[in-house]
TrEMBL record:
GO cellular component: cytoplasmic vesicle
Native source organism of the sequence: Glareola pratincola (Collared pratincole)
The protein's name in its UniProt record: MTMRD protein
GO biological process terms held by the UniProt record: regulation of Rab protein signal transduction
Residues covered by the UDENN domain: 1-76
GO molecular function per UniProt: guanyl-nucleotide exchange factor activity
């Protein structure tokens, strides 16, 4: 699972290398708008005639990608690091499958660590129900919920949360690395 995700991560990092150099932040509106120059991106990479990439860039998923990843100050992740710093490594590994596989496994391990920051905590597996378990008649009906008790618990929780400091997320925002400009890349 993680290795397949790592392969797609590398693919999209290669596909969108240099996309940050084609972003423009427009501050005319109260809320800044991020514009992506598709023609400049395709032209600088020599891919103007590439129908696939043109369709990808015109899609709604890419528009969401630009709006989410376009801001210059946000939380960075593994994809940002790949696009900014691993361009040469990915290009060098194109002709060397063992190195490519090693890098995919490293990325898969990082993806796993991102999802499971505390690997020493064991996850409890829920056993599968036995065959025919749904036919058993001795199963007790689900108890009715006491509405008064639910309200009491909600009020207690609200009272506790009002006195507590606001929760903050551990992610730190930083300036997103731009990586090399688009013009450095040859055809895919």
């Amino acid at each position: 699972d993680k290795e397949v995700r790592a392969i797609f991560l590398r693919l999209f990092a290669q596909l969108f290398q240099g996309y940050r150099s084609c972003l423009q932040l427009i501050r005319i509106h109260a809320e800044p708008v991020i514009h992506f120059h598709k023609a400049a991106f395709l032209g600088q990479r020599g891919l103007i005639e590439n129908d696939f990439l043109t369709k990808v860039l015109n899609g709604m998923a890419f528009a969401g990608f630009v709006s989410e990843r376009g801001p210059p100050f946000r939380t960075c992740d593994l994809f940002d690091e790949l696009v900014a710093f691993e361009v040469e490594r990915i290009k060098a590994e194109e002709g060397n499958p063992p190195k490519m596989i090693k890098h995919v496994r490293e990325l898969a391990e990082q993806l796993f660590k991102n999802e499971n920051p505390n690997p020493h905590i064991a996850f409890q597996k829920v056993p599968r129900p036995t065959e025919g378990s749904h036919l058993r008649v001795h199963i007790l009906p689900f108890p009715r919920i006491n509405e008064c008790r639910v309200q009491e618990l909600l009020q207690e929780g609200l009272a506790r949360s009002q006195g507590a400091p606001p929760a903050t997320r551990g992610d730190k925002k930083c300036v997103v690395p731009a990586g090399p400009p688009v013009g450095m890349f040859a055809r895919l």
